[in-house]
Structures are given as C-alpha cells and as structure tokens.
Amino acid sequence: MPGLLHLDASARSTSFSRRLGARFADGWRAAHPGAPYVHRDLAADPVPFIDEAWTELCDELMRRRITDPHRYHEVVETPAQKAAWAVLAPLLDELLAADVVLVATPMYNFSVPAALKAWIDQVTFPRMSLAGTRFVVVCARGGTYLPGTPRAAVEHATSYLRDFFDGHFAVTDVDVVAAELVNSLVDPVLADRRSEHEASVASAEAEVDRLVAAFAAAAA
C-alpha cells in the first residue's frame, strides 16, 4: 500500500502552503484508507544542520562507492558519526519508506526556507537515487513569479526543488502547485491585486484536487 511523507516548512502555523498541503494530504488519505502517512513539521520540530561528522559519512560513502541508502550505516564508526547517524537515520527511513513525498513550502527571499534546506541536506548523499518516488510540491509566494512575469527569473523555490529532485534523486515526476500574491492580503502596494491572489488560490486548490483524483485513479 503506498505511503505518503508530508513535510511542512512554513514558519507560520496557519499559512497558504500549509493549507494546500493539508488539502492534498486529507484527500490522499481519504483515497488511500489505512495507508502509511507521516507528517513532519520542519518549522515546529526543526531538523539540525549537518555537521562535520555528517560530511565524514558522506566522504566515506564516496570512497567505498556505496550508493544503496540501506547500506549507509556500514560507514558509521566514530562516536561523532554515530551521533550524526542518530539524527539522520529516522529522517532517511521516512523518506525511503514513502511512495509519495509532499513538500508544502512558502518561498522566502526567492528560495526555500532554511528549515526545508536543512532536511534536504540531512537526507541527501552522493549518487542517491529515489527513482520511482513521486514528489508533489505545493508552494505559496508573496508576489507573482509565473512564467512571463517580470520576476519569473528569481523564483528559486519550486525551480530549485524541481532541479534538485531531478539532478540528484533522479526523480523527474514532480508536480508543482503554487498560490501567488499572498502579500496582497497585508501589503497596501499589492492591495489592488487581491482578486488575482484569490483566483490563484482557487486555481491551486483545484489543481490539488485534480492531483488527488489522479493518484486515486492510478491506485485503483
């Protein structure tokens, strides 16, 4: 039975990225009753940054040419490495067990939050393939960064995640859903674009529902 790993990265306890993520997770779980589901809130329970012991593990994996994540533990030797492994092992287990990984994230300062990047750094090792795992990214952005808009070139949140999953995990099957112009709710300069924001949220919710239905159909 397929399993879902759900990551939240927003610093806000109530946010549009969390709202879209919850919508997907709720729909997915309803369509897959009893299936494994893990929710990790990277903002409420931050993942530590990698340390020197982690880099030692990484170096040793390259030296021994170990690419199977289920064998990573073989290089753990020193007390510091054991401590690093104790942090990353449960994160890695959750990732490897998931058939679908849902990443719910805002875009902060043109990129992903540090909390999400810390998780990525912990679970990523050289030549590590997750081919066959599906990734869904739901994102909220303060302005608009759609293709063809003036600031499209500086959208380094969903574009980074797409490039990373493809370039490092060998995952090309990534679905991305974004809600735009969230700051129109608080920034007077963007107040006249609130209707665009509302339309963007409605479109994002419809796309989330479409994805949920597609996953349900594929599993039937």
TrEMBL record:
CC cofactor: FMN
InterPro entries named among the record's database cross-references: Flavodoxin_fold, Flavoprotein-like_sf, FMN-dep_NADH:Q_OxRdtase_AzoR1, NADH:quinone_OxRdtase_FMN_depd
Residues at which FMN binds: S10, S15, F16, S17, M107, Y108, N109, F110
The entry's keywords: Flavoprotein, FMN, NAD, Oxidoreductase
Domain of life: Bacteria
Enzyme class: oxidoreductase
Reactions this protein catalyses: 2 a quinone + NADH + H(+) = 2 a 1,4-benzosemiquinone + NAD(+); N,N-dimethyl-1,4-phenylenediamine + anthranilate + 2 NAD(+) = 2-(4-dimethylaminophenyl)diazenylbenzoate + 2 NADH + 2 H(+)
Single GO MF annotation: electron transfer activity
Coiled coil stretches, renumbered: none
Record EC number: 1.6.5.-, 1.7.1.17
Pfam families documented for this protein: Flavodoxin_2
Record's cofactor remark: Binds 1 FMN per subunit.
Domain Flavodoxin-like fold: start-end pairs: 4-186
HAMAP family (alphabetical): Azoreductase_type1
Protein family: Belongs to the azoreductase type 1 family.
Assembly: Homodimer.
Function: Quinone reductase that provides resistance to thiol-specific stress caused by electrophilic quinones. Also exhibits azoreductase activity. Catalyzes the reductive cleavage of the azo bond in aromatic azo compounds to the corresponding amines.
Protein's name in the database: FMN dependent NADH:quinone oxidoreductase
UniProt source species: Pseudonocardia hierapolitana
Upper classification of the organism: Bacteria, Bacillati, Actinomycetota, Actinomycetes, Pseudonocardiales
